[in-house]
Every structure is written in C-alpha cells, then in structure tokens.
Design brief:
Shape: globular
Strand order of the largest sheet: 14-12-10-9-8-7-6-15
Number of helices: 15
Structural class: alpha/beta
Order of helices and strands: EEEEEHHHHEHEHEHEHHEEHEEHEHHEHH
Bound molecules: S-adenosyl-L-homocysteine
Strand content: 15-25%
Number of strands: 15
Helix content: 40-55%
C-alpha cells in the first residue's frame, strides 16, 4: 500500500536528518543510531520511523515518480486564486492581503475573519488558506491511523457519549496483546506509518500496561505513535516517551476556563491542569496535537479565536479542531449542530495564523458532511487526515458522538476512498517534516 513516499537521507546533523522527496527537502527528527547518508527511510509527522532496503525504495519511488509531479501540478492549479470581485469591505481584503505577505494579524482582524458569513468573503478566506498551505507545505498530506482501544471512561464530560454516566453504552476494552496485534496489522499489512492510540480515561491501563503496549508495538513496527488517553501523571507521560511514544493527541477542549468548568465536572478536571500537562508534554519532546470543540453552547467567536491562539502558543505541531456532534445520551443532547462554515473558518484562520502547521480534518467534520466534509476541509487549509483502523466489532461502541463517518466502511475501502480523494485534489501522502 503506497500512502507514504520513501525519502532519501541527504544530511545528518545531531538528531536531525534532511530528507529528499523528489527534490523537495524536509527536516525530520532522527532517533535511529544506524542510519547513514544515502539510506532510504519513511518519516511521519517529522519523525523518522522506518529504514527501508534500497531496492524496495527504488521500486516504490519508480511507481510514484510520475504521479508525484502530476499531483503537484494539479494541486498548484486547484490552489490558484482568481481575482475576487464583489467583496465590498476593503478592510476584509486588506486583512487577507496581510496574511499573504506574512504579516501577523491583530486580534480584531482575526475576529473579523471568524465573524464573516458573507459568501464571497468566505470563499476568499478558504482559498487563501488553501493557497498558503500550498505555498508553505506543498501538496504533502499526513494520513494517520487511529485505534480506539477502550470506551471505558472515569470522566463525565457533558458532551461526550462515552461519559461514565451513559449507562446504556456497552463497554469494551482491548487487552495489550490485541492492541499490539491491531497495530501491527495497521503498520505491517496496511502500510500506516503513524498511529493514534485513543481511549477514554481508563485507568485499567496502568502506566506499566501502557509502557508494555508501546514497547511491544515499537518492537514489531516502525511507526510514529501518538497517545490519546487523557490526563495521566507527569511521570506516566515521561515513561511513555521513554518507551517510544512520540506524539500526543490531547485537546484542551476550550480555552475559556468558565466554559471548561461547566463542561467538565469533577474536582480533578481543571483547565489549568490540562494546560500544564500540555506544556510538560511539549517539554518532554512530544509532538503536540491539540485544539478544541467548535459549537459548544455559549461559545463565542472570541473564544474560537483564543482557541486558535492558544494552540499556537502551545507549540502545537498539529491543530485538531472539530465540531461538537450532540449525543442523545448526554446533557448536551439538544445542543444545535454547528454550521460547517464555522468549522471551515476555524481551519482556515488557523492556517492564516500558523502557515506551517499540520491541520487535521477531524472525523467529526467528516460526520457533519459525509459527502464533502473531508474535501472541504482539505480545501480550506487542512493537510492531515485520519483513518479509523479500530476492529469493526468495536467501532460503533466507541460512540463519543453518533453516526461517526467511516464506521460504515471497511478499513480497506476507507483507505482506497481516502487515497482517491487525495489524488483528485493533487495531494500526496508524503511527510510534512518539522
Ligand atoms: N480521553 C482522551 C480522548 C477523548 S475522546 C482525552 O481526554 O484526550 C477524543 C475527543 O473527542 C475529545 O478530545 C473531544 O474533543 C471529542 N469529543 C467528545 N465528545 C464529542 C462530541 N459529542 N462531538 C464531537 N467531538 C467530541
């Protein structure tokens, strides 16, 4: 399965390797002690994950070469902006121009972008985000797999379908060996180079069990591992890093502490704790994927702006913003469903503010518009996707929200559908570097 392109090491200095992809260079972090200049490797999320034999790499690269340049051409064509006519507010155009020139925006300018509902302005905003993505990161796109390994949770977040008060939910938990088996299948058979291991906050998995899981996966697979398991002790995150985990997907959910308090009941769930932990994870060297929920009751555009700015200030490598999808068995069952444009605005503004970031199309955005959500996200500044590789028998039980996109498809179909979408937009699943 070819959804990562091998690169060739051009240069090695300290823990950085410079990798060549058909003439395009990316810097990646290198933990390997046995790689040399000229070796072929796979990198993901800016981390070197696998060495590959030269003869295999050359074969794969041969398959890719022609397509790679065709895709680039197509992306360039799609991302071109035709002169926008009909926007009446000159100020809006000036703000957009500033971002094209790389000038940072003031808060009121960011708000102006987030508040627009004018069709032409929206169109220009989304196209500008897409153009900046093309300019800074070319047509690379991350494709990560996600394994949802337990739906047990000790928390009672008001929005979440796997909250502990949801007594109607059948709970499941995969044991360490099963998780390792699914992960090896995803990497060694399906070809994933990065995996997110996600669960509710389930303390059945002790630090020891988590470490065993990470070590066993790393022994069997060359893969970038993201942990998405909620709040744990500093020590646990430190030991998981030492065992080989290199990323975390850990949202702060909202940057508004009052809203945070309303949504997260329990003495331990404090906004500041979550932020402290995120900063600690960053210090340990984890790749940080974080962000917030869009469409929370009482959330304002100013909150969304603060969410984007907080994500940037946390040195996030990856922005993870998705809409709230109300779940019938939660206190937010009757919350209104967010308009897709609000989500696209957040992705686009994130791109304008942090042009080199990896920006995720979340499954929740796909769920909001199953037909076009992914495509619209990718055309509004996003450049990363996830494919659910949880075994079918568990998928529907991990119901943080209902009707999750992708659950109706087999994994292989999902991979094929994703690749076809990427190709139709001129995107290639190469690494994005750091
Ligand atoms: N226990 C982990 C993973 C939580 S589930 C952690 O605490 O980080 C992953 C994400 O699903 C959450 O961060 C939350 O933002 C999102 N989520 C939960 N309920 C949702 C809903 N109803 N609609 C959309 N996203 C939701």
């Amino acid at each position: 399965m070819c959804y990562a392109i091998p690169g060739k090491i051009l240069e090695l200095r300290d823990n950085i390797a410079v990798v060549d992809y058909f003439g395009e260079h990316r810097n990646v972090l290198n933990d390997f002690t046995d790689v040399q200049i000229g070796d072929y490797i796979y990198a993901q999320g800016g981390i070197l994950v696998q060495k590959i034999p030269k003869q295999d790499a050359i074969l794969i690269l041969k398959e890719w070469e022609e397509r790679f340049f065709q895709l680039k051409k197509l992306d360039l064509k799609i991302s071109r902006i035709k002169e926008e006519v009909g926007i009446e507010d000159n100020k809006f155009i000036k703000i957009i121009e500033k971002t094209r020139e790389g000038i940072s925006l003031k808060r009121d300018e960011v708000l102006r972008l987030l508040k627009t509902n004018d069709k032409k302005e929206l169109n220009l905003l989304f196209k500008t985000a897409n153009k900046l993505r093309q300019k800074h990161l070319k047509n690379s796109c991350c494709v990560h797999g996600i394994i949802e390994f337990s739906n047990h949770c000790r928390n009672d977040c008001l929005y979440c379908g796997i909250r502990k008060s949801n007594k109607k939910l059948k709970r499941y938990r995969m044991d360490v060996d099963e998780i390792v088996k699914v992960a090896s299948f995803a990497v060694n058979r399906l070809g994933f180079k990065a995996l997110v291991l996600q669960s509710g906050e389930d303390f059945w998995y002790t630090t020891e069990k988590l470490i065993e899981m990470i070590k066993k996966i790393k022994e069997k697979c060359g893969v970038l591992l993201f942990m998405s398991i909620g709040e744990r002790s500093f020590d646990c995150y430190k030991r998981m890093y030492e065992a080989g985990a290199r990323g975390v997907l850990f949202r702060f959910e909202t940057s508004n502490p009052r809203l945070y308090k309303k949504l997260h009941r329990g003495p331990k769930l404090k906004f500041q704790n979550r932020i402290k932990l995120l900063r600690y994870m960053s210090k340990l060297g984890y790749i940080i994927a974080t962000g917030s929920l869009i469409g929370l009751p009482g959330q304002t555009e100013e909150d969304l702006m603060n969410d984007i700015l907080l994500t940037k200030s946390l040195n996030a490598e990856m922005y993870s913003f998705g809409p709230l999808i109300p779940h019938s068995e939660t206190p937010l069952a009757n919350a209104s469903l967010e308009n897709i444009n609000t989500v696209l605005k957040v992705l686009a503004v994130s791109r304008l503010i942090d042009p080199k970031a990896k920006i995720l199309v979340t499954t929740a955005l796909e769920t909001l518009d199953k037909e076009n959500g992914r495509k619209l996200g990718l055309l509004s500044g996003a450049n990363s996707l996830m494919i659910n590789v949880t075994p079918t028998k568990y998928k529907n039980l991990y119901s943080i929200y209902p009707n999750k996109a992708g659950n109706e498809r087999e994994i292989e179909d999902d991979i094929e559908k994703t690749l076809n979408l990427l190709y139709s937009l001129g995107r290639a699943p190469t690494d994005l570097g750091i």
